[in-house]
Amino acid sequence: MNASMVRFGGIALFIYLVLLILGSLAFGGSIVGRIVGLIGTAMLIFGFWATKGYLNAKGHSKADLPILIIIGASALAAILGLFGIGGGMGGMGGMGGMGAGGMKIAGIIALVIMLVWFLSWLWFGFSALGFGKTGGGVWKAIGILYIIGMACLALTILFTILALAAGSAGLGVIAGILVIVGGLVLLAAVIVHGIGLIQGAGKM
Question: Cβ atoms within 10 A of the Cβ of 168, count?
């Protein structure tokens, strides 16, 4: 993959964030929102495909599998989103809406995708952190931010379950705080990720 493609991959991640925010705040679950979600998912997928190309060019292939899983899970989440199942944005945008279909078959499929999504992003975080030993501090930061963000979301799930089991409003508040913190950290991770690709393209 050439430097121009890698650079656009970084830009694509920024476009993804803009569309994620625009789709969530301006369009919600409307038809327009779903179209925006599809475009956003395409940007996310290209950003990660460019990441794979860049890391491979640097002799790092350990992130290949989690990246391919992220791409596949994001694409599937976007397709389900067209039918009103899940968040419809793929990637991080689809996290909050996964499982919205209840315990029907489609809802179960959405929950499985959420689990795969969760594990693959965490896996990628550790892979990026490992690449940071040779790729520079920005990739260490990318890995750390993804790991922290996913850890917050894991704790969100835990506290949500505990809150429901115990009927505790306090635990529910903690879960709410954690999901906000985790979401903001993941947004920061994507921003730094985009910067990392743009900077890396300049060194190819």
Answer: 14
Q: Which domain holds residue 39?
A: 3-135+196-201
Judge whether 169 lies within some domain: no
Please tell me the total count of domains within the chain. Answer: 1
In a domain? residue 187? no
- 184 within domain boundaries: no
pTM, entire model: 0.81
* 183, part of any domain: no
Q: Please state, for a pLDDT cut of 90, what percent of the chain lies above it.
A: 35
113 and 98 in contact (C-beta within 8 Å)? yes
Q: What is the pLDDT of residue 5?
A: 94
Query: Average model confidence (pLDDT) for the chain?
Result: 81
Eight-state DSSP code of residue 104: S
The per-residue pLDDT for range 66-75, each reduced to its tens digit, is 999 989 888 8
Distance CA 80, CA 70 (A): 15
Q: Is 84 left (phi over 0), alpha (psi -120 to 50) or beta?
A: left
Nearest Cα to Cα of residue 12 among 204, 145, 193, 142:
193
DSSP code per residue over 151-190: HHHHHHHHHHHHHHHHT-HHHHHHHHHHHHHHHHHHHHHH
Packing angle of the helix pair 64-82, 31-57 (nearest 10 deg): 170
Which tens digit of pLDDT belongs to each residue from 179-191?
899 889 999 999 9
